Amino acid sequence: MILKTDFRDGGAGDLVQYIQRDRSQDAVNTVDVRNPAGRTLSDVELDRFVDKSQQHDFQRHMIVSPDPTGQYTPAEVNTNTQQLMNRELAQHPTTEYVYAVHRDTEFPHAHVAATGRKQELEMGRDEIGRLRERAAAFFDEPERAQEATPTDDEEATRTPSKTVPEETRAELHERELAMEEHPEKEVLRATERAEERAPSETPPEGERDGHRDEALQAPAETEPEREGEPEPEPEPEPEHEREQDWLMGG
After folding, report:
1. Which CATH number fits domain 2-150: 3.40.50.300, 1.10.443.10, 3.40.640.10, 3.30.930.30?
2. In 10 A of CB 182, how many CB atoms?
3. Which end of the chain has fewer CB atoms < 10 Å from its terminal CB, N or C?
4. What is the CA radius of gyration of the chain?
5. The pLDDT value given to residue 199
6. Which H helix or E strand runs over 98?
7. Per residue in 32-70, pLDDT tens?
8. CA atoms of 113 and 33, how far apart (whole Å)
9. Could you tell me which residues come within 8 angstroms of residue 177 by beta carbon, excluding any fewer than 6 positions away?
């Protein structure tokens, strides 16, 4: 589970516009932004949320990104995020939130925009860590990853789902927190290009064996002197240093 969050002073107008946009193949599509009941909000209702955020002069952005090995559907990310946020934020009297599920990557993830009194939405590092643990529990991550692992018979007949390294996802979501326009261009596509190049850069089996043999022989050329070998005689001290020792009584 990756759960990243950040906060800013001011209204949430730009944040709402950002989470409303789903970027697929360089196209920008509008996705549903929902309220805590899971209902899609109209433009008028979104404007009301933004007005409320301006009154509080505070916003918090959260990204909930479950492990892709769990094979979560966008509908499951929607439901689990809604239930998680209702549990975590419902007890705050002035806090309101909206959320949207993005499907512009191979791993659906949710963006949450929350507003309320600053004291209600402030989070320390430990509290964010606990929230991440509760999110993983809501998504039932360990069990889902285990269930998604195919048996030997299934493996032979199925094309495995492509997963993205966690560090790549973390970098992408970090850039999304900064509300970059198309972070997937630099992050995900750079990873894809590296994966595409990797097979062609792998030397043939015979060459790999040759390189391995060279690697095994290389240390013998540079290994340190073994015990028992005569040490080189020390170089004589320069004449002026010996004279200095003599003057000092050495």
Report:
1. 3.30.930.30
2. 13
3. C
4. 29
5. 55
6. strand 96-102
7. 999 999 999 999 999 999 999 999 999 999 999 999 888
8. 10
9. 4, 5, 6, 61, 63
